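Entry:
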Amino acid sequence: MPLLICLCLCLILSPLSAQTFKDVTPQDPNYQAIEQAVKKGYLSFYQDQQFQPDKPLSRKEMAVVIQKISTELDKFSQSDTLLNPQNPNTLKLAIGKFDEKISSLNAQHSKLNEEFKTLHEDLSKTNDDLKIEVAKLKADNAKQQRLLWLGIGGATILGILFK
């Protein structure tokens, strides 16, 4: 609602789109919306070139805003453009764009599927390699334990013999 109030202020005045707002900076989050509304003639400055974005909107000003937007929408719907819902080519255009998007998504899906398969194969190979390495480490560990016990046994025997 605050954005609508900002956009609708000063609607009755004629737009001065070549000028800048004194009280709305480009860093304002609503700056582009306000600027576009002025360029299209929906809004304008006050005489002191201020927009006064925090000023409350009267019911009269709101009625003017609604009427201007409604008039613009009526002009658009009566125009002979491809976006006009009454134009038979609109549906064809929309279906064509939809088909293009679906084809693009299918291509992306196929590519991601291939990448997934490759990653899965790599992961399986890495897993197999790790299993082999773990088995080798276990075998080496068992061998080292046998040698350790053999060494402990030999040291015990030598200790007994040379006592």
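The mean pLDDT is 81.
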